[in-house]
Design goal:
The protein is of the alpha/beta class. It has two domains: 159 residues, no CATH class; 179 residues, Rossmann fold (3-Layer(aba) Sandwich). It has 13 helices and seven strands. The chain has a seven-stranded mixed sheet with strand order 1-2-3-7-4-6-5, with helices on both faces. Strand 1 and strand 2 form a beta hairpin. Helix 2 runs antiparallel to helix 5 and helix 2 packs parallel to helix 6. The two termini are 26 Å apart.
Length: 404
C-alpha cells in the first residue's frame, strides 16, 4: 500500500527534474516523520480514551456522593475527592517470616480508616448503609486510580513521542475500557447494596442457613449451625446485607482449635476463561478464597495442623461480571451448587462437623433464607433492567448497521 502511494506521487509530479526532486523530498519527509505521524494518530485516540476514563471516574464518584447526600456541598465533595487518593503500602517481604501478620495488620488498619471516614461523612447512616458506602468508595477509588494511570501514560507519550509506549497502551485499552465500564456499574451496585457476581458464595451460604440461628462471630462475620443430611454443619459467611467480605479464615481458625472438624468446604466465585459459560460449576481441592491471602493462610494453616480435608466449589464468571450486578446465569447456578455441595457432604466419611464457607462480598445478601427473598427481588429487578438496556443497545446497533 505504501509502495503504491509513493509510485503514484512520483508519477503525479511528472518525469522532469523538479518533479523527481519534489517526490524525493516528500519521500524523505515521509521516512523521517512517519513515526511522529503515527504517534499523533494514536495519541488522538488515546486522548479521547483518557477523557472517557475520567468521565467514568467522575460518574462513579458522583454515585457515592449522591448516596451520602442528594445535594452534596463543596466540603463533602472535597472530602471524597481527597479520600480517593488514599493508598496502602505493602509491608517488607524480604524476610517472608511473619509476612501474614504484617499484611493482616495493614488490612485491618485500612478497614478502620475506611470505616472512620465514612462515619465522618455519613454519620446519620446505619451500619449496613455505611458498609455499602465503604464498598462503593472502594469501587470509585479503583476507577479513579485507573483513570489516573491512563492519563499518566498519555502525558508521558506526549513528552517522549515514543511509538512503542503508545502502541503498548493502545493494545491494552480495550481490556481496560471493559474493566472501567464494569467498575462504574459495580460502584453503583455496591453503593446501593445490590448483589453483584462476587456475592454468589454468600448467596449459597444464606440459602443453606435457612431458618437456623445466626450468631455474630465478629463485626464482619456470622456463623450458623444446623443439621443437614445427617451431618452437623457450621456455616460461615460475611455479615450482610451490607457490603463486607468478612474474616472467614480467622473465625474458622478459632472454631477448628476448639471442635473436631471432618472437612472444610469453601464456595466462591472464580474467573472463567473466554469461551466458558457464565455460571458453570467446578469442584476441586484446596481453599477457594481470593484476596491478598491472609484469610486463606489461616484456613490452610489449621487444615495442615489438624489434617482436615479441603474441598472447594467455584462458580465461574468473567472479571467484569464479578463486580457488576449479578446476572441470571450466576443467580440460577444455586441448585447446581447445592447438588455438588450435597455430594461433598455425603462423601465425608470421618466423624466430626463440616464447615461450609460462603466466600465473597455479601453486598445485598442477608444472613438467612428469609432475608434472601428480599435479595432475589432486587436481583430480578436488576436482571430486567440489564435486559432492557441490552435490547436498546442491540436496537441502536441494528439501526446504525442499516443506515451505514
Amino acid at each position: 500500500m505504501i509502495n503504491l502511494s509513493i509510485g503514484d506521487s512520483l508519477n503525479g509530479f511528472g518525469e522532469g527534474i523538479w518533479g523527481q526532486l519534489i517526490s524525493l523530498m516528500l519521500f524523505l519527509i515521509f521516512i523521517f516523520f512517519y513515526q511522529r505521524i503515527m504517534v499523533m494518530q494514536i495519541l488522538f485516540k488515546l486522548e479521547r480514551s483518557a477523557e472517557l476514563f475520567e468521565r467514568m471516574s467522575t460518574k462513579a464518584e458522583m454515585t457515592v456522593l449522591k448516596k451520602i447526600s442528594k445535594k452534596p456541598d463543596k466540603k463533602l465533595k472535597n472530602s471524597i475527592k481527597n479520600f480517593l487518593e488514599f493508598f496502602v503500602i505493602s509491608p517488607v517481604d524480604l524476610d517472608p517470616y511473619g509476612i501474614i501478620k504484617k499484611l493482616e495488620h495493614i488490612i485491618d488498619l485500612e478497614k478502620d480508616r475506611f470505616n472512620y471516614f465514612v462515619g465522618q461523612v455519613a454519620p446519620k447512616f446505619d451500619l449496613e448503609a455505611r458498609a455499602n458506602i465503604v464498598m462503593g468508595l472502594s469501587g470509585a477509588m479503583s476507577l479513579y486510580q485507573l483513570s489516573k494511570l491512563v492519563r499518566h501514560f498519555v502525558e508521558l507519550i506526549k513528552k517522549t513521542k515514543s511509538i512503542n509506549l503508545a502502541m503498548l497502551l493502545q493494545m491494552q485499552l480495550p481490556l481496560m475500557e471493559r474493566l472501567a465500564k464494569a467498575l462504574v456499574k459495580g460502584t453503583e451496585a455496591l453503593t446501593n447494596g445490590w448483589p453483584i457476581g462476587d456475592t454468589i458464595g454468600a448467596y449459597v451460604a444464606a440459602d443453606l442457613i435457612g431458618d437456623s440461628k445466626v450468631i455474630e462471630a465478629d463485626d464482619e462475620t456470622v456463623v450458623a449451625r444446623k443439621k443437614y443430611r445427617k451431618r452437623d454443619l457450621i456455616i460461615i459467611k460475611a455479615k450482610g446485607p451490607g457490603g463486607r467480605t468478612g474474616n472467614p479464615g480467622r473465625v474458622l481458625d478459632k472454631i477448628c482449635k476448639k471442635e473436631k472438624i471432618a472437612k472444610i468446604i469453601t464456595i466462591d466465585a472464580a474467573l472463567k476463561l473466554e469461551g466458558e459459560k457464565t455460571g458453570t460449576i467446578a469442584e476441586g481441592v484446596g481453599v477457594a478464597l481470593g484476596g491478598i491471602g491472609v484469610e486463606r493462610s489461616y484456613i490452610e494453616e489449621v487444615a495442615v495442623k489438624k489434617k482436615i480435608p479441603l474441598d472447594s466449589i467455584i462458580i465461574k464468571m468473567g472479571q467484569e461480571e464479578a463486580i457488576m450486578p449479578i446476572k441470571k446465569p450466576i443467580a440460577d447456578s444455586l441448585p447446581k451448587v447445592m447438588h455438588v455441595l450435597n455430594k461433598c457432604i455425603d462423601r465425608t466419611r470421618e466423624k466430626g462437623k463440616i464447615i461450609v464457607v460462603g466466600v465473597g462480598n455479601t453486598s445485598g445478601i442477608g444472613n438467612n433464607r428469609r432475608d434472601l427473598e428480599k435479595s432475589k427481588k432486587v436481583i430480578m429487578d436488576n436482571i430486567k433492567k440489564m435486559k432492557a438496556l441490552e435490547k436498546k443497545r442491540k436496537k441502536r446497533f441494528k439501526l446504525f448497521s442499516e443506515w451505514s
